[in-house]
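Appendix B: complex inputs.
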Amino acid sequence: MTGTVQKDSYTTGEMMTVAASRELRDGAVCFVGIGLPSEAANLARATHAPDCFLVYESGTLGAKPDVLPLSIGDGVLAEHADSVVSVPEVFNYWLQAGRVDVGFLGAAQIDRFGNINTTVVGSYEGPKVRLPGAGGAPEIAASAKEVIVMLRHTPRAFVEELAFVTSVGYRHGGGSRRELGYSGGGPTVIITDLGVLRPDPETKEFVLTALHPGATVEEAREATGWDLKVAGEVDSTEPPSDEELRVLRDLRTRTERARGARA
Amino acid sequence: MDPGRDEGRHIVRMSPANGGRKTTKIVSLREAVAEFVRDGDSVALEGFTHLIPSAAGQEIVRQGRKGLTLIRMTPDLIYDAMIGMGCASKLIFSWGGNPGVGSLHRFRDAIENGCPHPLEIEEHSHAGMANRYVAGASNLPFAVLRGYVGTDLPKVTSTIKPITCPFTGEELMAVPALNPDVTIIHAQQADRRGNVALWGITGIQKEAALSAKKVIVTVEEVVQEFEARPFGIALPSVAVDAISVEPRGAFPSYADGYYERDNAFYEAWDPISRDRDKFRGWMERHVLGVDSFADHLRSINIEEAVR
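Resulting structure:
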């Protein structure tokens, strides 16, 4: 730990975004979901990964937004993009064709094998909560070479059994994803506001491998709806650097200002 | 030959053959909707976040259409209002949220509580919907993609079926073509000959238009000549049945080069649509109680100014 930033000087949400942004390597072709993933990907682009190539499902290739888009098709995505293509083209020629290195997804619910639900809570026929649905996620989960998932760590989100499988992670674990014939490798990391989970190489069950400063194993266990496995040695996430925080807060401030200004 | 076209649906063409008026497809939106959108039709109003044909959606509400099968990748505010006003009996979609804000409350109320009446849903992924339009535009019965396998979507959506590649034996997923009775899109410009130009994020509009039996386009303005624009596309006049001029017709979505997305309105929609009575009152004041989309925009601006 650097010790240059006090623990209280940043929020758990900021820690989550910073930790997720560090997962994105420079030069990667990254298919970005809206919301938290978009914030993390753009933080990466503004810090250690200036040459990551951001793809949004609206068809913007090489997007370089200077403020965070509120929707997946905001004008700011097209403005400085290297190309703008149709929706069939971005899904067929880019994602399905295997041109995407990293898919960056959020989730409403996730299970121990990284399968994701964004469709419904309760039964499909008589839902308790109807969620927005699939969007681009099922094919991102299927075809991106690897997938980074980020979501807040709560028992309602980290569930024993999904109400609905919208997007496939490692399915039932082990080699069961491979039977589906997808070219993509599946989720490699889940970043939460408490820590980091990575899949066991054999069973493919997600295991707590790192905790953010201040978070405890107990907290993570309580926030997980299944019996969370913990790595033999749990790393401690490096706190956000001054630079990471400054860039993230700048991005948020610019975004707030842009959204507040009514056209 | 035009086998996909329903010959009963003709707007009276103002061509030299029928009275010597100028060849044009430019009609009022009221006429275009009255002519082409009928109760029970399948209707696609497309525009992927950008260029959402909001004016046309409201005109359909004002004309009281019922029993529509609404098709759209992202239902957005436009279908939330149409569903809440009882226009739809079925929705074909892939992502039903208020982008960047949260839920579509009228959409949820219809699915969760059957209000104002039960809504049949047919849901896909974006890739599935996009490929369905491509198949429709190509006059193919279905499209093939890598996806859906291992998800629960094929269990609840009958229009997702496995198919074996006849060449490799590989198992893939098939989705049927979409061929809406009517597709409506919003574009930046038309010219006098009825060609249409749009640019910026052009989403799925070309495929949605070319897969439909009839096509209505609302535009920001009519110009003498189009300028070349990066990433722009043009829909030739032969692919368009009616054009209506509706300035700011994509509000609260945006039109690249004309106006920006009104993010504040997307946020304001949340409390407006959350409560059934509040929603109904708002629609009566600002949609049913006005004559046109231009009046609608004046009406919501006045209400805001009074606050």
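Residues 142-176 of chain B form one domain.
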